[in-house]
Design brief:
- The chain is α/β, with parallel strands linked by helices.
- It has 13 helices and 13 strands.
- Helix 1 links the parallel strand 1 and strand 2.
- The chain starts with a strand and ends with a helix.
């Protein structure tokens, strides 16, 4: 039996690589002769650096940057095994994990640190940069990122705008005369699992603002600020970003990369699968096992398990998802190439216990699934 193991990180519990190891261990308990290929994946969020750099035998670097509130921190970024492609997870510099719950306020957070990482990669000579867009603490339309790369944003008095999405409502003009000239020769790809526009009911503020600490009033303020920002961008550069699919990724960082860095937004899981030659590994496989921390209705929107399932189904390979937990609407994945779904819990337990015990629970859940598979094969 040939099994491809392609989970993404179980957020807060296991990296994608550790999850793949656990699944492989569970398979060996039941089918020791199985041939397994471990290909941990990511969709642009947590684990993207690991999936693209470690899986390709690349290198990880650490740089001094600023966090969402401009405090100095260290952040990792990497270069793929091709020696030509830099990989940045924006959450390493501008992520929600860097902001304590009581301090979360997307009116004042900035993507400046992400811009610093891009600047660092360019300074090292890399001209192809993949930016993983998941897990942001920000809602500044990528203005902070652009500022780190030399763009200036002024109010009607000619004063530089402070950091944060709320201040974009005061934007009067944009000056790119000091923008990093190497951006002209740099190919920047925003790897994202969302296609939301910048503004409106499905935009960055409305859909993702609340999880970053925005109240309903703040959401309205932030959306209006981004709409104004988009209008100034269009007036200045002739680039319409308010309704572009993916422009709302990472609090509008997608829009900023498009407007100031000639970036393009691409499905994160498709990009990762292409880099890892997923299709060639799936050829001749009997089963692919993927997974993530929680599977629910939102999983169908180009999350990693569905991206893997889509490719497997096209090649006639059966698909099993093993999740940390199942949420409302998890059954919807069956219409997207998934054959079976299970979760790691084998008895009622607090979430904290499940997270602390994810590795052994995942091993055992995989073993149970393999035994059921053997029952089916024996018929």
């Amino acid at each position: 039996m040939k099994v491809v193991i392609a989970p993404q990180a179980f957020k807060g519990a296991l990296s994608g690589a550790k999850a793949a190891e656990a699944i492989a261990a569970g398979i060996r308990l039941v089918i020791p002769e199985a041939k397994t290929t471990l290909l941990p994946v990511a969709d642009g969020g947590d684990g993207t650096l690991e999936a693209l750099v470690e899986n390709t035998n690349g290198h990880v670097f650490t740089s001094h940057v600023n966090d969402p509130f401009m405090n100095p921190i260290k952040a990792d970024w990497g270069v793929m095994g091709d020696g030509e492609t830099a990989v940045i997870e924006m959450a390493r510099a501008s992520g929600l994990v860097l902001v304590p719950p009581e301090k979360r306020d997307p009116r004042h957070t900035t993507t400046f640190g992400t811009g610093q990482l891009i600047k660092e990669a360019i300074a090292h000579g890399y001209r192809r940069i993949i930016v993983g867009m998941g897990g942001s603490a920000t809602n500044d339309g990528g203005a902070g990122m652009a500022k780190a790369l030399g763009v200036r944003f002024f109010d009607n008095t000619g004063t530089d705008l402070p950091a944060g999405g709320a201040f974009l409502s005061e934007l009067k003009s944009i000056d790119i005369s000091s923008i990093n000239p190497s951006l002209r020769d740099t190919n920047i790809i925003a790897a994202s699992d969302v296609t939301n526009p910048l503004c409106g009911a499905e935009g960055a503020s409305a859909i993702y603002g609340p999880q970053k600490g925005a109240t309903s009033t703040m959401v309205g303020e932030l959306d209006s600020a981004l709409l104004h920002y988009a209008s100034i961008v269009e007036q200045t550069f002739g680039i319409e970003v308010s309704e572009l699919p993916g422009a709302g990724a990472a609090g509008g960082l997608g829009a900023g990369l498009i407007a100031f860095a000639n970036g393009r937004v691409q499905s994160g899981i498709d990009l990762v699968c292409d880099v890892l030659s997923m299709d060639s590994h799936l050829e001749g496989a009997d089963l692919v096992i993927t997974g993530e921390g929680k599977v629910d209705h939102s999983t169908i929107y180009d999350k990693a398990p569905i991206g893997v399932a889509r490719r497997a189904k096209a090649l006639g390979v059966k698909v099993l998802i093993i999740a940390g937990g199942l949420g409302r609407g998890y059954e919807d994945v069956y219409a997207h190439g998934v054959d079976a779904v299970t979760c790691i819990s084998d008895h009622p337990m607090p979430l904290r216990t499940s997270i602390q015990s994810t590795y052994p629970l995942l091993v055992n859940a995989t073993a149970r699934a393999m035994r059921m598979l053997l029952l089916d094969l024996a018929r």
